[in-house]
Amino acid sequence: MITIVIPTMWKGLCLEKSLLEAESNKLINEILLINNSPNQTPNWFKSHKWNKLKQANFGKNIYVNPAWDIGIRNSINDKICVMSDDINFDSRVYEAVIDNIKEDSGCIGSDFPTSKIKDPIGIRVHQNHEHAGNGFILGTYANLFFLHKKNYLKMPIPRNLLVFFGDDWLYDSHRSMGKIPQSVYNF
């Protein structure tokens, strides 16, 4: 099963759709939403009866990377999806990646741009040290990525990184542990 970790400031227009799809997805049994803007919580969220969703509300913005840390550490599952609150995607991505989220594998992030790929949703393994300018576009993993909880706990994001570079840290950390990062495309 998969746990979704999602920090939000309620600015993403696709969040309601993503949460409703996650609630009905049989591969997901936990959604950990970190409310970084409690005063902006929309009525649609407050009025819905959530079955899989647990909300963490610290009364203020704790920022993105610390929110990821709290969500990942408190997840009940080893297979984690970290999702931005402003991404619109094909929810079949969970089926495409679930078997690839393993302790002996690297993180799986979004491969952009994907508009020219005609194939169905798929996984691409980074065989070389692809990085900014060579295949891994800085910031793209932050939209949607998957990882095994044990790999995160071995090298968590440093506390001084609040908003940016958390995805870069995880990508590089997985490489340093000998776990090849992967990309999911066409989702």
Summary of the model, kept short:
With 187 residues, this protein is α/β, with parallel strands linked by helices.
Q: Rough shape?
A: globular
CATH topology: Spore Coat Polysaccharide Biosynthesis Protein SpsA, Chain A
Count of DSSP-assigned helices: 6
As for the number of domains, it is: 1
- Please report which band the strand proportion falls in: under 5%, 5-15%, 15-25%, 25-35%, 35-45% or over 45%: 15-25%
| CATH class group | Alpha Beta
Q: Based on DSSP secondary structure assignment, what is the total number of beta strands?
A: 8
- Widest sheet: strand ordering: 3-2-1-4-7-5-8-6
- Computed over alpha carbons, the radius of gyration is 16 Å
Strand-and-helix sequence, N→C? EHEHEHEHEEEHHE
Helix content: 25-40%
Q: What's the overall average pLDDT, rounded?
A: 80
Q: Which architecture would the CATH scheme give at its second level?
A: Alpha-Beta Complex
What gap, in angstroms, lies between the N and C termini? 20 Å
State the secondary-structure class: alpha/beta
Main beta-sheet annotation = 8 strands, mixed
Which spans have pLDDT < 50 for at least 5 consecutive residues?
125-139
